[in-house]
Specification:
By secondary structure, the chain is of the alpha+beta class. It contains six helices and four strands; from the N terminus they run αββαααββαα. The longest helix is centred in the middle third of the chain and has 17 residues. It is extended.
């Protein structure tokens, strides 16, 4: 596996369904991603990278929260990000479908909003599962439907 990881002509990734790892030809993968990005109804080409301006906006927003005493100094430090990276698009192969399309995924790790997203997640986590409208998984959903129909 270590030898395969060193080969620049391939990509090692997981597939969309199941716990399966696959090896893809990099040229094939790049062509699939580029073809996906040609869809102008779904994707829009930007003239400039918005990362720096978004980071500046988010940090200004957090400073306003701090000044109005809506967050503590410690929270503002947690929420801000000083060296944000651009979000990254990648595709996960749908090996169970014809022509193996890619399911687009965007990584927001270390993006300008990463700190805010983590904080919001930690605030919402205790509320998860407390509502009668929450379902844990498809089996739980099917069970709740059965109970509703009885």
């Amino acid at each position: 596996m270590q030898q395969l990881k060193k080969d620049p002509s391939i990509i090692i990734t997981r597939v969309d369904k199941g716990n399966i790892t696959t090896v893809l030809d990099k040229e094939w993968y790049d062509n699939k991603i580029n073809k996906m990005l040609e869809d102008e109804e779904t994707y829009k080409r930007l003239k400039t990278n918005p990362t720096a301006s978004t980071m500046k906006y988010v940090n200004k927003f957090i400073n306003n929260l701090l000044e109005s005493n809506k967050v503590t100094k410690e929270a503002s430090v947690r929420l801000k990000i000083s060296d944000a990276t651009t979000t990254r698009l990648y595709g996960i192969p749908k090996s169970h479908k014809e022509n193996i399309p890619l399911r687009p995924r965007v990584s927001f790790t270390d993006s300008p909003t990463d700190g805010l997203a983590k904080e919001l997640s930690s605030l919402l986590k205790p509320l998860t599962g407390k509502s009668k409208h929450h379902v844990r998984n498809s089996s739980d959903f099917a069970s709740s439907l059965t109970h509703e129909l009885l």
